[in-house]
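User: For my dataset I need records formatted as: sequence, then structure tokens, nothing else. Please produce one.
Assistant:
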Amino acid sequence: MIFTLSWLKQFLDTDATLEQITNTLTMTGLELEDLVDKSKELEAFKVAKIIETEPHPDADKLKLCKVETDSKTLQIVCGAPNARAGIKVVLASIGTVIPSGNFKIKKSQIRGIESSGMMCSADELNIPGDSSGIIELPDDAVIGDAAAKYLGLDDPIIHINITPNRADALGVYGIARDLAASGLGTLKKLGNPEFNQEFETKTTLNVRGSEACPLFAIREIKDLENKESPTWLKNLLDNIGVGSISPVVDVTNYISYSFGQPMHAYDADKISDNIIVETLSSDEKFKALNEKEYELKTGDIVIRDEKNIHCLGGIIGGENSACDKNTKRIILEAASFDAEHIAKTGRRLIIDTDSRYRFERNVDREFTHMALDFATDLILSICNGVASKMVSSGDPALPVRTIDFPAGFLESRTNISLAPQEIEDILCKLGFICTNIGESIKITIPSWRYDVSIKEDIVEEIVRIYGYDKIPETPLPEAPIARIIPRDQRRVSDIKRLLASSGYDEIVTWSFMDSEKAKSFTTIKEELTLLNPISSDLDYMRPSILPNLLRVANNNINRSFHDLSLFEVGPIFEDTGHKVITHASGIRTGNIAPKNSHEACRVFDLFDVKADIAAILESAGLDINKCQIRQNAPDYYHPTRSASICLGKNVLGYFGQVHPLILKEFEIDADVIAFEMNISALPFGKEKYGKKPELVRSDYQAITRDYAFVVDKDQPVGEMLSFIKNADKKRVKSVNLFDIYSGTHIDADKKSVALSVDIQDDAKTLTESDIETINKAIIDGIEKKFSATLRG
């Protein structure tokens, strides 16, 4: 928010210095970002007067000027076409530094004639204006005075940062209110504008949909005279960088910056007498004041007639009804639009205007009619004309909002003890209405404070005016005894450390993604679609971390980083109410190690990621031997190179090669192996405290037996492994798959599965009979249960 000191003093009666004002702004939460005082930068430039000119004897385009200052007469050589006797000018005397070139004026010889100074143009002072000649100051400018005074540059420009909740401070009047409440002067009362409303306009108003536009008001003003804006108004707008355009537009900008109410004016002769305010029911094109054409979508708010769209509501006006120097009759608009609609449309179309900036932070609806009256009165005072009665649709009144504020609540939160009357004094100066009801204060919230809704908000209002620097010092409490970290947090931490130690790099991405890409991973649900996304490609709560990992992989591969191992642990979102589901997901792609002279390069494969999943399960305290691997991974995995890992009926996660179509969608031209582990679904074992049991190792020799069975091609190997483990739970220590073969000597619908079984007895040495008993149980059981044949 940018404004000038004189603009502030239009609403604040104060004798405070500029330094006091800027310091108080920061202390009340309106942080000072920049302060520009052009009068100090230009204090060396003075008013002077040309009293005589004559042609230069050796140069047709140069003139010899006699220039009167407050102490003497100087001879200056000048080439400006408008240099002539009788005009007041801006003089840079010897020793003055020119801002535009940062050079110092020296006495010099120009074509043999001595020149003792310089008369300046706007460009040379780095100020806006016509630079085809030297600056001509008003006739009443006093010789010897600072030139900045007559250029409208003696008005310090203040730039403050406004937090998103303080929409009321997007008008100079709101800033003046805060300063008055802080004791820096008195807020001037706004009088009611007085002007004649001499006729009923023929223009009708039809608002279709009060949700998007709860209030819309217009007034016709006719018989306008084509004049320039007054100097005071042009200077204000020039100083804040808006610039003067025309009296009507200047007034709407002045009202917007003064009170935070954006306005718009239509050339009434370029639109029909029926104004329609609606949300679009179909897509349409719209050419705006910035000469750009936009594709408007269903739901965008527009102001139109039967033929054309004349304004994108709350954001920017249309080119086809813009006011120009020939405009004699206008329709002046003041309205209140739904902030969410404005933000969504503006973000999608990438249109940044002062109007959008204010409306998407909420505008005081109860001031809308008053703003229209102020603008009307000012336009009439500048351009004359005749005003109609107001035509309005909607209710300017907002529901009354109150807060019961206990007398001791402030002290309980800040350690500041104030009497109820002191609290009321502060709040009343900010526009709140207070009623003392015993042990509590009933506070009515003003219409312009949309951000205030709870008792803590009231505390903030009191403290920022009372002074954060006055909060009493309170010793910090003693450090509490460290709590035991909850086991779910410990588990997440352990998994992160495990993956990092396995060569993965951790990344942290948004918890949302592009809804179009999300369709490849889930069925889109309306309740998971963001109404107000930070970006159009981040509009859906992620159903999986995998798409975000693939997006990051694509960014890295495009920058020639092809060997990647990435993981993230974080929430995913399903239609499960408030329950948070935590997943650990990772991807590997490229070579497992850099090129070297010791071994051939190998790319990551399915079994590398399977080992990572097994490590996660082991770190979580699960017995991997009790888990089952099944071929029912989601569709975004390769159909024959992926699997799920289960514990009974519970699916713990998935792993495998990402489906080629998904990789194509993310523009990745390489195989990617991925895993997803539902950490929230991993069961916790019983917490056991005290001495852990000793590790017992058998003194008796273990033996290994290898088996090769021919089974159906679609037979899950995991089921065979589980069966063998249970054949003799005490003596079968481990079962491992070491080969799967299909081809010569094996039927087309069969495969050969080779298994290695470790057998050991903890109490004795196994006899040949013991081994044969176990061997027979394994062979007979596998052949019977899985219709298998033992290969010879």
